[in-house]
Design brief:
The complex is a heterodimer.
Chain A: H1 5-13, H2 32-44, H3 53-66, H4 69-80, E1 86-89, E2 105-109, E3 112-123, E4 130-136, E5 148-154, E6 160-166, E7 172-185, E8 189-190, H5 196-208, H6 212-215, H7 218-227, H8 233-261, H9 267-292, H10 302-317, H11 324-335
Parallel strand pairs in A: 1-4
Antiparallel strand pairs in A: 2-3, 3-7, 4-5, 5-8, 6-7
Helix pairs in contact in A: 3-4, 3-5, 5-9, 7-9, 7-10, 8-9, 9-10, 9-11
Chain B: H1 3-19, H2 22-29, H3 35-43, H4 57-73, H5 80-92, E1 102-106, E2 111-116, E3 119-130, E4 137-144, E5 147-154, E6 160-163, E7 173-182, E8 185-188, H6 197-227, E9 229-230, E10 233-234, H7 239-264, H8 272-297, H9 308-318, H10 325-339, H11 344-350
Parallel strand pairs in B: 1-4
Antiparallel strand pairs in B: 2-3, 3-7, 4-5, 5-8, 6-7, 9-10
Classes of the chains: A alpha+beta, B alpha+beta.
């Protein structure tokens, strides 16, 4: 998703960031379903929401749940105005799918915490003013999920350095972030010390439950529809099946928005939508190739340019926010496989 | 779903779980009509779940969904879905619902309808008609000239012949031929109702039955994976098995969502878009589910003694009935292409066809 801070501020002004947050923190006190409608339309239109997306989707809700009052008052209204952007500090060079094995450490001192270590694959770290990061606050014990804690980190704090990592397309959107004796205040601990694992699972449920898990490829489908011949049965059947997939995924995604609105935990259905959504999205460039054999030259038309981007971006869909293997593990656990 | 549909779900599942066993399933495959079971089902009122005039049309499909679902889940060896839809169409055409098992025919190129002496007369033959040999009445939807009509034929009518055939699950799928056969009654089909009501209604009923059957396969597969021990632990502990069953569960969730959405949004007219999505999605699920379940069950699941095949052979049959995925997809695809890419999203949100 492309990034445009001016667009984010305009959305904030319109009241379309933090829609479901309390008014006293700059939110709109709208329902989760109303928020869903706006988010879905933004994605369907391909709007450049990259700057504020994480803040709106997961950091804001997380701060509402676990942030101290003075922090919520200071940050949430600016997030809702589209001025403050967040990044997510979870993965580390040696801890990807095995998130509980992280080694970056937060040590308590007299005026707060001292952070050391590094995070990787951090999307937007070069733009975000804040990170919410997971750090180890105790020894590596037999219970690997204990002694992890979440922190709010001002990215301007001395000792933080951000190194861009080019992705396979050559674009800079994710980074490695280094922490070298970074001092942060005591009230920047989110929730309780040692509760980080459960909090991160809550955060990931927000991350995995949105409609972006099936709408990343919609621009390609639109181009495919315009390139198709209504009298060619190969075209009509393939497009029709994709319409059915999209209609189904949208209905499931809407169901999750309903669960969030009722205060239910959508972790399992969200994992299912993510798995099924990424399968469809990754299949879309394959079907486009099969139907139209699109030449991916830079002089091609609109479908070639969308296709060139998506065919390269598609592998990331089932990696970001939890790999396919991890997501299916969550589903298997939900099924009661012992 | 409403309280009433919850009550229906509870009672239909209770009855089928107690009464549909492998003995009655095997008897059907040997050609024996499960008359006692039919009696019980009919007395319960399930066959009129879509034709009960005290129920608002918009709620009819919500109440019918659990009955279709349970018919698939327990592999009910009766034409209950066909009788439910036949009764619904009779009531929509202004007739009273009937007692006894029924089936339906959507006119195709092999069947001719004409009116003679104020009666509807049928000539021709139609293949793969479900349960025809056991039906007391047959409902026929078609055209006389440009006029859409719905007719009712009694099993004992003159010129009606049925020759037996079955799908791979052993369910009757007969060839029905008519030679100047007169309908006992017929009526013009109202404007605003679908052109091919038998195909449309039966497709949604089949989709719901496939969801039920797929869910029973998922349940059986998870139980088997937890019970079966190899290399010292249950195979459900191996990541490869877990990943396969996660795909199976995802497929079932998609089919269920699409089908329930169509039932929840249904009025007496049914949305062609919703039904197409449900039938396509459930049909795709059928193949994946059967494939993974058999892999998980290994050689045991491939035996006739195991019960898995009662569901998987039905799934393979049902996905091809009432319009295979490609037939419905061609319709949806053509509409989407004619509408144009810039209208795709708004049409999807409106679920418009």
């Amino acid at each position: 998703m492309s990034t445009d801070p001016a667009f984010s501020r305009a959305l904030g002004e319109r009241g379309w960031i933090g829609m479901a947050w309390p008014k006293r923190y700059g939110g709109g006190e709208r329902s989760m379903l109303e928020r869903y409608v706006v988010v879905e339309e933004l994605l369907a239109a391909g709007a450049p929401c990259g700057a504020h997306w994480v803040a709106d989707r997961q950091s804001g809700p997380l701060l509402l749940l676990y942030g101290q009052e003075q922090i919520k008052q200071a940050l949430l209204p600016r997030m809702a105005r589209g001025e403050l952007y967040f990044c997510i500090g979870m993965s580390e060079p040696n801890s990807g799918s095995d998130l509980a094995s992280i080694r970056s450490r937060a040590t308590k001192n007299q005026d707060g915490w001292l952070l050391n270590g590094s995070k990787i694959w951090t999307s937007g770290a070069h733009l975000a003013q804040y990170m919410i990061g997971l750090f180890r606050t105790g020894p590596v014990s037999s219970n690997r999920h204990a002694d992890l804690s979440q922190f709010l980190i001002d990215m301007a704090t001395p000792g933080i350095s951000v190194r861009p990592i080019k992705d396979l397309t050559g674009a800079d959107h994710f980074n490695e972030v280094f922490f070298d004796n970074v001092r942060i205040p005591a009230d920047h601990l989110l929730g309780n010390e040692g509760d980080g694992w459960n909090q991160v699972m809550t955060e990931l449920a927000f991350e995995r439950s949105g409609p972006e898990r099936y709408l990343s490829c919609i621009q390609l489908l639109i181009q495919m529809i315009d390139s198709a011949d209504r009298d060619n049965e190969r075209h009509t059947v393939a497009i029709g099946k994709l319409v059915a997939e999209m209609a189904t995924l949208r209905q499931m995604s809407l169901g999750i928005a309903g669960m969030l609105a009722r205060g239910e935990n959508p972790a399992l259905p969200a994992a299912i939508v993510k798995d099924q959504g990424t399968l469809v999205e990754q299949n879309l460039p394959e079907i486009a190739h099969d139907l139209f054999g699109i030449d991916l030259s830079s002089r091609g038309g609109p479908i070639a340019s969308v296709m060139s981007y998506l065919v390269q971006a598609a592998p990331s869909f089932s990696i970001r926010g939890g790999t396919r293997a991890i997501v299916r593990g969550i589903i298997a656990k939900g099924l009661g496989l012992r | 779903m409403s309280n009433e549909s919850d009550m229906i779900r509870e009672s239909v599942n209770r009855m089928f779980s107690q009464r549909v066993d492998r003995q009655v399933l095997d008897q059907l495959e040997a050609g024996v009509w499960p008359g006692e079971l039919w009696q019980l089902v009919e007395e319960s009122g399930f066959s009129q779940v879509l034709s009960n005039e005290s129920v608002d049309a918009a709620e009819g499909w919500q109440n019918a969904y659990p009955v279709f679902h349970a018919s698939g889940f327990y592999r009910l060896p009766l034409p209950l879905a066909e009788t439910i839809v036949a009764n619904a169409l009779l009531v929509l055409a202004g007739f009273a619902p009937r007692n006894g098992p029924m089936t339906l025919i959507q006119q195709d190129g092999h069947l001719n309808l004409h009116v003679e002496d104020n009666g509807l007369v049928l000539n021709g033959a139609v293949a793969s008609i479900p349960w025809a040999r056991f039906a007391k009445h047959i409902v026929i939807a078609g055209r006389v000239g440009t006029q859409l009509v719905l007719g009712l034929v009694e099993a004992t009518s003159q010129g009606l012949q049925i020759s037996h055939a079955q799908n791979i699950a052993g369910e009757p799928r007969d060839l029905v031929s008519f030679n100047d056969t007169r309908c006992t009654e017929y009526a013009g089909w109202c404007e605003g109702l679908p052109d091919t009501p038998v195909t449309l209604f039966c497709a949604l009923a089949r989709a719901a039955m496939m969801v039920g059957a797929a869910q029973s396969v998922l349940q059986q597969s998870v139980e088997y994976a937890n019970d079966r021990v190899q290399f010292g632990k249950s195979i459900g502990k191996y990541q490869a098995t877990q990943q396969s069953l996660a795909i199976l569960a995802g497929e079932v969730a998609c089919a269920q969502t699409a089908t329930m959405a169509a039932c929840q949004a249904a009025t007496s007219a049914l949305s062609v878009f919703d039904v197409a999505v449900a039938k396509i999605r459930a049909g795709q699920t059928a193949g994946v589910v059967a494939n993974i379940a058999h892999q998980v069950h290994g050689a045991f699941g491939y035996t006739h003694e195991h019960t898995l095949h009662y569901a998987t052979r039905r799934l393979w049959s049902w996905r091809a009935e009432c319009g295979a995925e490609s037939l419905w997809a061609a319709q949806l695809g053509r509409q989407a292409i004619e509408r144009g890419g810039d209208k795709f999203w708004t049409a999807l949100v409106a679920r418009a066809s």
